[in-house]
Structure formats: C-alpha cells, structure tokens
Amino acid sequence: QVQLVESGGGLVQPGGSLRLSCTASGFTFSAYHMSWYRQAPGKERELVAAISSGGRTYYADSVKGRFTISRDNAKNTVFLQMASLKPEDTAVYYCYTKMGPDDYWGQGTQVTVSS
User: Fold this and answer.
1) Alpha-carbon 64 to chain mean position
2) 15: confidence class by pLDDT, cuts 50, 70, 90
3) What count of other Cβ atoms lies within 10 Å of the Cβ of residue 56?
C-alpha cells in the first residue's frame, strides 16, 4: 500500500535551517507530483511547496526564496530544505501525493522555530 514517511523535523532557532525528508513506497514514485503542506495550531492546512514528476516546482509566497523542494527518484524521496526559518514557520509538516481520486498523506513531522 501507499506509504509516506516524513522525517527531519525538530526545534530550531529563528534564522536556522532544517531539511525534511519524505520517503515513499507502494507506488511508482517518479510518476507522481509530490507536495509539502503544513498546519499550524488553530490554522488550516496550507500548501507550502510542490514538485511535478518532471521536476517543476511551486512555492507559496510565504516561503519563496527560503525553502527549496527537490526529489530523488532513485531513493523514492522528496525533500524540503528550509532556510532563514521564522517563528511563523512553526507547524506540522506533511508530505502529500494524489493518485486519481485518492489523497495520501504522511503522518507529519513537527517543526518548531523558537529561541
């Protein structure tokens, strides 16, 4: 079955960096778009970044220039490199893909930006 497993979250000071990873299994990873979403306490889940099967990328305005999404199809993994982190980046970050009518989410990884 489809599985998405995130890792790499943690506590970081403002201005710091983190790299999130999402390792996928159960499907042909290279054929599908992959995305990162986040959800802060009391807020709706929002799209942070996405990467197509061909490598085209999209970023939310709030993270443009600070976050970089990439993928390694040989390792079935999508990454989110986060730099210049701000307290408002604090959230649970989720990996996501969609196949036809079906949505698949990882379990999430907590990112906390605080001094």
Assistant:
1) 14
2) very high
3) 9
3-class DSSP assignment, residue 72: strand
Cα–Cα separations (whole angstroms), residue 111 to 18, 21, 44, 54, 69:
9, 12, 16, 28, 16
Token pair, residue 23, equals: 């390792």
Residue 15 CA, distance from chain mean position: 19
> pLDDT digits over 43-65, tens only?
999 999 999 999 999 999 999 99
Measuring CA to CA, which residue among 99, 95, 97, 98 is closest to residue 108? 95
Q: What's the mean pLDDT when you consider all of the chain?
A: 97
Handedness of CA 76, 5, 98, 71 (dihedral sign): negative
88-98: average pLDDT: 98
Contact 94, 108 (CB under 8 A): yes
